[in-house]
Predict the 3D structure of the following.
Amino acid sequence: MANDTFYTPPEITKVLGPFDWDLCTDLDAPFRHATYYCYRPERDGLETIIDGYVWCNPPFSKPKPWAMRMARHNNGVLLVLANVTAGWFQEYVLPHALGLFFPSKRWNFYGKDGTVFKGSNGRPAMARDTILVLYGQTAMRMCHGAVESGKLSGTIVPLYHNILGDLCQPNKSRVNQG
């Protein structure tokens, strides 16, 4: 398995769904998170015409095109590494998402065989710190419900400039200055 291929824990998508589309999965993925799927590379989730509520757990090494796709679609959840200072995060997450969910602990991800991915020491090899990017009202509502019911543990950070519009716009002159 490539160090970039981590399959989403099904307990996450179960409490945030149901999802209409999973934009970035493999034919042999151990879990199904949505009604429709874009399989890499046969059916490119970056190009497929979609509608509805979307789940996206892209390769951690190439989040930019997926964040751009989710920002354009604006109705779904994007699971990415918490690279909050990266250019793609500043350009396609902060100005577009309604909120961010920071889990209270690292999640265990899965291998193609459907078991928790383990490192060379035999213990669960957790990905680095990940977050959920919440695009649109459905994603915010579903995440809020999962947190309130105790099914997800962590903190939702609303991005008020996207909720309140012109009342609270970020200072664009500070964005992307390195």
Observations:
- The mean pLDDT is 83.
- The longest helix spans residues 136-148.
- The radius of gyration is 16 Å.
